[in-house]
Amino acid sequence: MNKQLLQTFNPLLSYCRFKGYKAPGGIRYPGGIVYYPRNPETYKDPEITPSKLFRVERIKSAKNFPHWDKKILEELKILEGTGVAIVKNIPENNMRLWKVKHLIKVTPITFPYGEPTEADINYTVLKENGQCVVTKKLEPQNSQIEALDKFDNDIRKMDSTTIKRDSRQKWVDGYTGGF
Questions:
Q1: InterPro entries from the xrefs (predicted)?
Q2: What are the chain's domains?
Q3: Whole-model pTM above 0.70?
Q4: What is the DSSP string of the chain?
């Protein structure tokens, strides 16, 4: 018989697994992700700076889940109640968050007005969308204080008791005021 004919019908070759077609090109990212842009010549990855901190909120109860999930939530101190934890963006924490991703909501923390300093700790507010805003005490200007004093000391100004008395008198006297 013909050797080529025998080679093509080799039973060992017919049982090998087909790996599939892999298109040439594409941009390979870590984790086995391949992205095929529409215009490969003009496509450029946007610059992304990862967040330093994450806001982690538990959105689902840990009841009827394995003990290792509960242990991770306990380490984050969000196992009981509806708590929020702030976690560093490091590989060890990311690995733990990945294991309980079905129980939590992770939001990157951004600083739209710059990172707070040690003196600003009492004035920082962390919003639900992940914005950390520094709200310092606002002090009035001298011109505003002078205008308020001038308004308070004006003799033509009616105080609240005078306004109440006048309004009541107009209500009682139906022909001269009111409706």
A1: Ribo_uL30_ferredoxin-like_sf, Ribosomal_uL30_bac-type, Ribosomal_uL30_ferredoxin-like
A2: 28-36+50-109 (3.30.1390.20), 111-154 (no CATH)
A3: no
A4: --HHHHHHT-HHHHTSPP-----S--EEETTTEEE--SSTTT--PPP----SEEEEEE-S--TTS-HHHHHHHHHTT-SSSS-EEEEE--HHHHHHHHHTTTTEEEEE-B-TT----GGGGGGEEE-TTSBEEE-PPP---HHHHHHHHHHHT-TT---HHHHHHHHHHHHHSTTTS--
